[in-house]
Amino acid sequence: xxxxxxxxxxxxxxxxxxxxxxxxxxxxxxxxxxxxxxxxxxxxxxxxxxxxxxxxxxxxxxxxxxxxxxxxxxxxxxxxxxxxxxxxxxxxxxxxxxxxxxxxxxxxxxxxxxxxxxxxxxxxxxxxxxxxxxxxxxxxxxxxxxxxxxxxxxxxxxxxxxxxxxxxxxxxxxxxxxxxxxxxxxxxxxxxxxxxxxxxxxxxx
Amino acid sequence: xxxxxxxxxxxxxxxxxxxxxxxxxxxxxxxxxxxxxxxxxxxxxxxxxxxxxxxxxxxxxxxxxxxxxxxxxxxxxxxxxxxxxxxxxxxxxxxxxxxxxxxxxxxxxxxxxxxxxxxxxxxxxxxxxxxxxxxxxxxxxxxxxxxxxxxxxxxxxxxxxxxxxxxxxxxxxxxxxxxxxxxxxxxxxxxxxxxxxxxxxxxxxxxxxxxxxxxxxxxxxxxxxxxxxxxxxxxxxxxxxxxxxxxxxxxxx
Lengths: 205, 253
Description:
Number of domains of chain B: 1
Strand order of the largest sheet of chain A: 2-1-3-4-13-12-11
Number of domains of chain A: 1
CATH superfamily of chain B: Aldolase class I
Structural class of chain B: alpha/beta
Strand content of chain B: 15-25%
Distance between the termini of chain B: 17 Å
Radius of gyration of chain B: 17 Å
CATH architecture of chain B: Alpha-Beta Barrel
Number of helices of chain A: 6
Number of strands of chain B: 11
Radius of gyration of chain A: 16 Å
CATH topology of chain B: TIM Barrel
Mean pLDDT of chain B: 91
CATH superfamily of chain A: Class I glutamine amidotransferase (GATase) domain
Order of helices and strands of chain B: EEHEHEHEHHEEEHEHEHEHH
Shape of chain B: globular
Low-confidence stretches of chain A: none
Helix content of chain B: 25-40%
Largest interface: A-B, 30 and 28 residues
Mean pLDDT of chain A: 95
Structural class of chain A: alpha/beta
Helix content of chain A: 10-25%
CATH class of chain B: Alpha Beta
Low-confidence stretches of chain B: none
Strand content of chain A: 25-35%
Order of helices and strands of chain A: EHEHEHHEHEEEEEEEEEH
Oligomer: heterodimer
Number of strands of chain A: 13
């Protein structure tokens, strides 16, 4: 069973439906005992970093996520949920993240010319870092597969945790991975068959 | 680089698609769920569901359908039609919509775009505008071009973007239904004044109209249409391979 952590941020309906569509049992929950009994954990999120981080710690779910990650259980952060896995964010101030993945969240705008619209919204192609083993959640994908992005900030300085990038006037982090912890900046639940293949592969980790 | 998006629009009345047509492998042409699945499998980058239901009683039918669509289709969904309040935003977002398109609701209540953007984020709010030339100016119209408003289209679009509209659907009434191509003059003017994604609507009659659009105005992000797709005049897969052969970046499936 998969737990999608419900900490009051964002609409979890599509995410839940996408796992059900690929034949997984899934619950949307804020109950630590349910989360600890599940085989896999999803950390979702849309909106502003500070607000989401505050909600996660107010509910005590930050500790739950850290404990689940430490237990070796596969954990997937999606969009803002991915950004929360990092050490810190510079979205409107400086905020501490969960620190499960190396790197920090910074704005896209200063990195790209003014011709690039912000947010980065739409379908963009994935590239996988050369000379490294492909991250297991992308095992069904080829280089250049398109996924759906909506974001104004991105993860920088992820080092060896960098699992995929995309080009948008600059090379942006599209996904991160470190051991059993994974994160996608894009929305696999909105990325058609390619996205479903990522979720399938995550369920096989 | 980000791809140009091709977006079919499904007009839904009382739970059924208006202007359905026979596609191979499609049993029920007026089922929004089947048609949405068909488009999704055949290369649509996003879908727009437009609720043209007249009565309040049938609104529930529309949201029920949306809920069903969201269970099966995993590409971005935009919903429009009858969006007049934050409650309407809430109603469709809960059923699986990713973005909400407002048109007359924003004109009736000038605070709606700003309030919705603040609550759900700019990326969630799509401003749809029906535009027609009147005496050398672009004016905003209501009800598919039947009612003229006082609003200058370019001023109105700029104002809504400043308040948080994250995307603009520009529907040219002058070119709509004529199938002679998109309204390039209008679209260019809109692209010059805003820096959010601009979606061209109204006038597509053939594949060539799309290549012309994206070549003439590289800043246009997407092309939206209804009948050319529904009547099979433009096949999305074929359209995308032609666009790709013209070096326009599209998502192939």
